[in-house]
Specification:
Elements: H1 4-8, E1 11-12, E2 15-16, H2 26-41, E3 47-50, H3 54-70, E4 75-78, H4 81-89, E5 93-94, E6 103-108, E7 112-113, E8 119-120, H5 127-135, E9 137-145, E10 161-165, H6 170-181, E11 184-187, E12 204-209, H7 217-225, E13 230-233, E14 235-236, E15 242-246, E16 252-256
Parallel strand pairs: 3-4, 3-6, 4-5, 6-9, 9-15
Antiparallel strand pairs: 1-2, 7-8, 8-14, 10-12, 10-13, 11-12, 15-16
Length: 257
């Protein structure tokens, strides 16, 4: 494990410096991307959507530091049980969509980001709530390490596109998607539990291993969502405003929509 405290000494104010190491770990790359996003996009009195996944851990850590040192007032809206626990752990104000239906900025991770800023999300199983929160946000900012940056979807992320489905319909949905677009579909199995993964919403997840990387992802997303029993897909099309990718050298690459 690397020392976050030791690594953060390379970050002074909002200026980001190279580390003296020739190559960073993936965790360090996640950290620099997360810190950059929080510093540049979170302002006082913001409503902030908190995404899910390993990179978001560093974003919440940085947000908590800024709340303490700058006396920021922010309300955090979680996208998952994990995100809710992070907010509580860091003593941040926990909100919900009922009272905060409009979110200023959501900071979230991604499993893959292509050249058109189309995302694959849902590797951690939280795609539905993540997409709901993103859809309620004025801006969606993605933070990731350099391994998530692709030219085309499927270049790097090989686990497929997650699709959340009503349990009773997963077999016919599998058949219909394969008939429509080809590829292979697997029901996601749980770890340390017999049977399939069950989402926070009580649904199953299908992972679609597509073979055609040149599909119109906007159209694909729309057509799959029209299949009865499909709750949501892990395709985030035209939703991400900016992406930060922590690099192996300690810098941060940016991409805007």
């Amino acid at each position: 494990m690397f020392s976050v405290r030791k690594f953060v000494q390379h970050i002074v104010g909002r200026h980001y410096y190279h580390t003296t190491e020739t190559k960073m770990s993936l965790e360090q790359a996640k950290l620099v991307a997360a810190y950059r996003a929080v510093d540049e996009f979170v302002q006082n009195n913001n409503i902030v959507g908190i995404g899910s996944g390993s990179t978001v851990v560093y974003a919440v850590q940085r947000l908590a530091e800024r709340v303490e040192t700058e006396n920021l007032k922010v309300t955090c809206i979680p996208t998952s049980f994990q995100a809710k626990q992070l907010i509580i752990k860091h003593n941040l104000i926990l909100g919900e969509l009922d009272t905060n239906p409009t979110i200023d900025v959501t900071i979230d991770g991604a499993d893959e980001v292509d050249a058109n800023m189309t995302l694959i999300k849902g590797g951690g199983g939280c795609l539905l709530q993540e997409k709901i929160i993103a859809s309620c946000s004025k801006k969606m900012i993605v933070i990731a390490d350099y391994t998530k940056d692709s030219e085309k979807l499927g270049d790097r992320y090989k686990k497929g596109i997650p699709i959340e489905v009503v349990p009773m319909a997963y077999v016919p949905i599998k058949i219909k998607i394969i008939q429509m677009f080809g590829g292979e579909i697997k029901l996601r199995s749980a770890i340390a539990k017999a049977g399939p993964v069950v989402t926070d919403n009580g649904n199953f997840i299908l992972d679609w291993l597509f073979t055609n990387q040149d599909l119109d992802w906007d159209q694909v997303n729309s057509e799959i969502k029209m299949i009865p029993g499909v709750v949501e897909t892990g395709l985030f099309v035209k939703m991400c405003n900016k992406a930060y990718f922590g690099q192996a050298e300690g810098t941060v690459a940016e991409r805007s929509n």
